[in-house]
Each structure stands twice: as C-alpha cells, then as structure tokens.
Amino acid sequence: MGERQRACGKAECQTARRQKTQADWRKRNPDYGIAWRLDQRAAQTPPPEPLRLPAPLKQLPWEFAKDQFGAQGADFIGIMSALVLRAAKDEIRRIPLIQRDFPVDFPLFRKRPVPASRILNPERRTMHLQFHQLDRR
Q1: Which residues have a Cβ under 8 Å from the Cβ of 82 and sit 6 or more positions away?
Q2: What whole-number distance in Å separates Cα of residue 17 and Cα of residue 137?
C-alpha cells in the first residue's frame, strides 16, 4: 500500500470490501429490494400477471383485490401475506409434537371406574324401560 492509500488494491480485498459495504447498506435499507420490485411491476405497460403465491393464498380472489387496491396494492398484500404465512409455518415447525418428558406409553383411552350416570345422579338408579313402556310424544 502507498502512503495515503487506506485499502488494499488486490482483487480479493476489493471483493470482500464491496460485499461488506453492500451487506451494510442492505441492513440499513431492508425494504428497498421489495419496494423496488413492486415499483418495477407497477410500471410495466401491459399489466403483469398475478404473483405466484403459496398454496392457501393462491385460492384468494386476487383480481378483486387488484380492482379494489390497484395492482401495486394487491402485490403488496400478496407479498405481506406470503411473509406472514412463512413466519407462521416456521413457528409451527419449532413446536415439538411430543414433549420429551411425556410418557410414550400414555394410555389414550381409559375405562371409567364409575359410570357417568352414577357420578351425576348418585342416589337415582338408572331406569330400564322396554320399548312398549316408552311415552311417545
């Protein structure tokens, strides 16, 4: 390096410095890329085809949303919905299905020691009627 030179002039150093500068800029401006793509889609002369969205979102009436909010508004709602859906799926994946301290051989169904009718009405015995004794109303 020269006396006044502050950075290395090698190609590898310049590439690393450029990547760091670009990463810092993206951290300071996180929404620039999405906003730029939305502006580019809105500026297209023939209206662009609807965005490709994940499974549950593509069933929604995007043409209606486009009529109500405009092309850029519908694109924004679609991108935001996809982002929320992806975040929700990521959260669901982090929840363990079976907890570690839960016993594996836990019985799913167990037999009642006392019938429910005796718990609700302890003194009253169940009345057994035959078909001809039932009151038809």
Answers
A1: 53, 54, 57
A2: 89
Q: Is the pLDDT of residue 56 over 90?
A: no
For residue 5, pLDDT over 80 is answered with: no
Are the C-beta atoms of residues 82 and 57 closer than 8 Å to each other? yes
C-beta of residue 1 within 8 angstroms of C-beta of residue 8: yes
pTM listed for this prediction? 0.47
Q: How long, in residues, is the chain?
A: 137
> Pick from 7, 69, 1, 6: which is nearest to 38 by CA?
69
**Helix, strand, coil % over all residues of the chain, rounded to 5:** 55, 0, 45
